User: Fold this.
Amino acid sequence: MTEGSEILTSKQAKERRAAERKATIKADNMALRTLQKPNPMIVTDDLLRRLIDWVSRGKSVRDFLLECAELSPGRVPSRASIFAALDKRPDTKAEYMRAKLLGLEEMHEEILSIADDASKDLLKDGKPNSTSVQRARLRIDARAKYLSNQDSMRFGDKVVFAGDKDNPLVFKLSHLERMKRIDELLALSRRARKGEDVSMVTDEITKGVTGPLRKLLGIKIDNGDSDADPE
Assistant:
């Protein structure tokens, strides 16, 4: 009965924390909408500089707006006005994009710091603090997923296959290897044009030889396919 009550208590605590987080997010969003209505702040160069510095530390634009709300109640710039101002300033927008990349690096390093922090892994009685561990895991997973969505090539688990449009398959042959390959194909072509049977030629010689090139060289390989290229 004691074990059942502990599980129930843990479940209730988890649900309460989730409800509190949801309520906090809702309150923040309502505060932003309320503060932006009376007299929105004009987006200046100084404000954009502060935003760039903020983003370079791995923080979000949303948190920046909340910071503005605390510093200047009733005068909070909207997200749309900020990005509209960046579009009018190409150099500043380029700095913002670089700051975003720096912010991703900062967030990636933060994941390692969270994982290495064991200060709250144990309770005062020496028992494992499962709540703290789960919270740390949630913070790591959320940041890892965000990084993967923002830049999957650098921070994701993407598997690159041969022939990917961003990573094309490239064959690198030396000059001697290329000349040898050409000689083999030309010799095969001469044999085919003399009427010799080249159907038993090794796959190594014809590897990578496409249908049109095979037709140009006069090579016909009988592989049992009735739709084979004609001579």
